[in-house]
């Protein structure tokens, strides 16, 4: 068991966004969070990653309330990447990835040979060898996204949380990120929890899908269990055709606005 919510309520001050949430995110799996705009997807991800102060109760990581984890200890176990990244554009790819080692170092402690080896491995895993000394402002959107993911890998976490990592990328770079996530999961054993908008991308890569609607879980299960014509109507207000062949990933096409 990796992350678990038990009757969790999440909100900002008096404004509750998610109510009575009960979910288990199994270790070593890819979990995709879907839902319409404003349903609480990013809020849930931020709460799981201790990125926001909320009214949350009973979010457990390794059977411990996440509020009992120290900041650095938690960062050594779980890496969180927001949808929008801020950094000095003149920082090189290697320098950015080196930031991922900070949770493992004491204040003012310099990186050692082991740290540099871990950084080199993260660069290799994300296929950034030829770009390692290039500054961020000279990268494409997909290259920059891979650099940020490499920084998270350098933390050596058990869990990687990603907020819409394929947004604003063209289809080529979207598929690059999806293939990278698949490799990190299968080869490194990383548990992935991410927010996606593209239903077909989620169906293609996910072990489990969580669909949120108005701050509550509409459904949770495998892509074949969750992606149905009823869900698309109830949650997204669209009609669509679903291709569901056992030997292929489920796929959705021919979207139309749902009209009663």
Question: What does it look like?
Answer:
The protein is an alpha/beta fold. The chain is built from nine helices and twelve strands. The strands form three sheets. The chain has a six-stranded mixed beta sheet with strand order 6-7-8-3-9-10, with helices on both faces. A hairpin with a 2-residue loop joins strand 1 and strand 2. The termini are far apart.
Strand content: 25-35%
The helicity comes to 25-40%
Average pLDDT for all residues:
91
Provide the succession of SSEs: EEEHEEHEHHHEHEHEEHHEE
Strand order of the largest sheet: 6-7-8-3-9-10
Shape: globular
Largest sheet: 6 strands, mixed
Structural class: alpha/beta
Q: What's the total helix number? A: 9
For the terminal residues, how far apart are their CA atoms? 42 Å
Low-confidence stretches: none
Q: Report the count of strand segments.
A: 12
Rg on CA atoms, Å? 19 Å
Summarize the structure.
This is Iron(3+)-hydroxamate import ATP-binding protein FhuC. The chain has 260 residues and is an alpha/beta fold. The protein has 9 helices and 12 strands.
Write the layout of secondary structure elements.
Layout: E1 3-12, E2 15-25, E3 30-34, H1 41-48, E4 59-61, E5 64-65, H2 71-77, E6 78-81, H3 93-98, H4 113-125, H5 141-154, E7 159-163, H6 171-188, E8 191-195, H7 199-205, E9 208-213, E10 216-221, H8 223-226, H9 229-236, E11 238-243, E12 251-257
Parallel strand pairs: 3-8, 3-9, 6-7, 7-8
Antiparallel strand pairs: 1-2, 1-4, 4-5, 9-10, 11-12
Helix pairs in contact: 4-5, 5-6
